[in-house]
Specification:
heterodimer, A: 230 residues, MetI-like fold, globular, B: alpha+beta, Rossmann fold, OB fold (Dihydrolipoamide Acetyltransferase, E2P), six-stranded mixed β-sheet, five-stranded antiparallel β-sheet, 9 helices, 22% helix
Chain lengths: 230, 370
């Protein structure tokens, strides 16, 4: 089975979009998960709702909201373009943003659950040994939630690889720029004789998904072994 | 003054209102569960912010609500050994021990300190292991070492042996005794066990319902059985400090001398001249009003009844034996039959075998050390 250059481009683009979406979301995901798990502040429920929103809304609606906010003339999009030169609309970066937003609730949820499972008494003990709150987080909390972080990253990556509705609404379906795997498969199904191409990309999708799953299993197991849990 | 505390704190319906200071050595916070012992050490460690009051250690104010002083826990340099160890599961024993070093690098010799503590606690063989598979006793020794290596000004121990069985406790007592006598760090030790306090404590703060019921040297406070719960009263009695006089090879006995006279008990491994602390349970002491003859008990002391505390079905008779107090628990029937009253001359009889390992401390520091 060989992929045509266009199909190959779609696969590489999808991988790039998913990896960037996952890695860029990660620090924000951990910070928000920590705030939701431990914080007692005004607007806690609001923040939680906002993070979960993309999970509940139709993806097309999320994509449209991104278009309004992050489009070239949108309030945030215009600011970012003028100040930092970051443009989202009809670029692969926009696809990464859409995928990141869609995967974000899954990542936050996994990380939050693992933070809630951390024994806060260990953190107290670290405090009595001289660690400030930041050091307690870096030396005790963070190492203990690594399995949760891995799970969150895999979920976010898988969601990003499969994201279709929000991406196509926000940044359209431009080959070589915003045409990810699902968009390419969709395009193939819309033209006569595209069945074979659709099938090839479907196989590629399955292989990538399986590889991600196996990788997460291996990483989670080694993390658990370090904690002497497994 | 090592530790001075004077605080008021409300938690739900429970009101803590205590004031005491300690002078070094091992101070036991003693009392039944719910008397506020753990809250007090949590306040000292900075895990709880008290509603009002002051806490100072070695002359440094850690909390003073009147002046708005509250030193955060990580800047207090107070070691805390928790009941459940709380070792970090993702670090090796060695990394656990050195955790405090990341934040408070010691002034002097790094490796020497680690070696000394590892040696003191007998944990050299555990260093490369992870805490997950250590036994309860091993975990607690590592937890003690971890707290010590953070170079604390004060060491808090919250029932560190409560989750261990008697054999494991016996394994750790000598390490705590060594710590008390050689490390030079004052210790505040929470306990609800009479045996533990009688064995380890230099002084005792007795707590009841969030208040200090009594405070003073261990020997004095441990006689106050009226302040204890029924379970604690079972174990209560006199605490005697005695010196090892000689070992009898033939019968496997050891002789101790105290102000009351000579004690004979089953052989100790303690060298002659060492001082030990002996807990004589009130329920193990028998009284006679005439000199007993032809009896098996090897420990007979004469004295005068100084006080009779009448309890529920029994009475605790306090006997002054040449300036040393022994306590005997008798039924009201016996008390009446012997016509005991303050001033009555009596003989106190104690079987040697009732003075077992569980009622003895390891060697106490000699006078010159303290």
């Amino acid at each position: 089975m060989t992929l045509s250059p266009e199909e190959w481009t779609a696969v590489m683009l999808s991988l790039r979009v998913a990896v960037v979406a996952t890695l860029v979301s990660l620090p924000f995901g951990i910070a928000i998960a920590y705030a939701l798990a431990r914080g007692r502040f005004w607007g806690h429920g609001l923040l939680n709702g906002l993070v979960l929103m993309p999970l509940i809304l139709p993806p097309v609606v999320t994509g449209y909201l991104l278009l309004i906010l992050f489009g070239r003339r949108g309030p945030i999009g215009a600011f970012l373009a003028d100040t930092f030169g970051i443009v989202f609309s009809f670029r692969w970066t926009g696809a990464a943003l859409a995928c990141g937003v869609m995967g974000f609730p899954l990542m936050v949820r996994a990380v939050r659950l693992s933070i809630e499972a951390v024994d806060t008494r260990l953190e107290e003990a670290a405090g009595t040994l001289g660690a400030s709150r930041l050091w307690v987080f870096l030396t005790v909390t963070l190492p203990l939630i690594i399995p949760g972080i891995i799970a969150g990253m895999i979920l976010c990556f898988a969601k990003a690889m499969g994201e279709f509705g929000a991406t196509i609404t926000f940044v359209s379906n431009i080959p070589g720029e915003t045409q990810t795997l699902p968009s390419a498969i969709y395009t193939f199904t819309q033209v006569p004789g595209g069945d074979l191409g659709a099938l090839r990309l479907t196989i590629v999708s399955v292989v990538i998904a399986m590889a991600a799953l196996v990788a997460s299993e291996v990483m989670a197991r080694s993390a658990n072994r370090r904690l002497d849990i497994a | 003054m090592t530790l001075a505390i004077d605080i008021k704190h409300r938690q739900g319906n429970f009101v803590l209102d205590v004031a005491f200071d300690t002078q070094g050595g091992l101070t036991a916070l003693f009392g039944r569960s719910g008397s506020g012992k753990t809250s007090i050490v949590n306040i000292i460690a900075g895990l709880i912010r008290p509603d009002a009051g002051r806490v100072s250690v070695g002359g440094v104010d850690l909390v003073d609500t009147a002046r708005g002083v509250f030193v955060p826990r990580h800047k207090r340099r107070i070691g805390y050994v928790f009941q459940e160890g709380r070792l970090f599961p993702h670090l090796t024993v060695r990394q656990n021990l050195l955790y405090g070093r990341w934040f408070a690098p010691p002034a002097g010799d790094r490796d020497g300190d680690l070696d000394r503590v590892v040696d003191l606690l007998g944990i050299a063989g555990l260093l490369p292991r992870r805490p997950g598979r250590l036994s309860g006793g091993e975990k607690q020794r590592v937890a003690i070492g971890r707290a010590l290596l953070a170079s604390p000004r004060l060491l808090l121990m919250d029932e560190p042996l409560a989750s261990l069985d008697d054999a494991r406790k016996a394994e750790i007592y000598p390490y705590i005794e060594r710590l008390r006598d050689s490390a030079g760090i004052p210790i505040v030790y929470v306990s609800h066990s009479v045996a533990e306090v009688a064995r380890l404590a230099s002084s005792v703060v007795l707590l009841a319902d969030g208040k200090v019921a009594a405070a003073g040297p261990t020997v004095d406070i441990m006689q106050r059985s009226e302040l204890m719960s029924p379970a604690e009263r079972e174990e209560a009695g006199a605490v005697i400090e005695a010196a090892v006089a000689r070992h009898d090879q033939r019968f496997g006995l050891t002789e101790l001398t105290s102000r009351a006279g000579t004690w004979r008990l089953t052989r100790l491994d303690t060298p002659v001249g060492a001082r030990v602390r002996l807990r004589v349970r009130a329920r193990d002491v028998m009284l006679a009003t005439s000199p007993p003859a032809d009896i098996s008990a090897l420990n007979v002391f004469s004295g005068a009844v100084s006080d009779i505390a009448t309890g529920d079905g029994t009475a605790d008779i306090r006997i002054d034996c040449n300036g040393e107090t022994l306590i005997a628990r008798l039924t009201h029937y016996s008390t009446e039959r012997l016509a005991l009253a303050p001033g009555t001359q009596v003989y106190a009889l104690i079987k040697s075998v009732s003075l077992d390992r569980g009622t003895l401390s390891g060697p106490l520091p000699t006078i010159a050390d303290t």
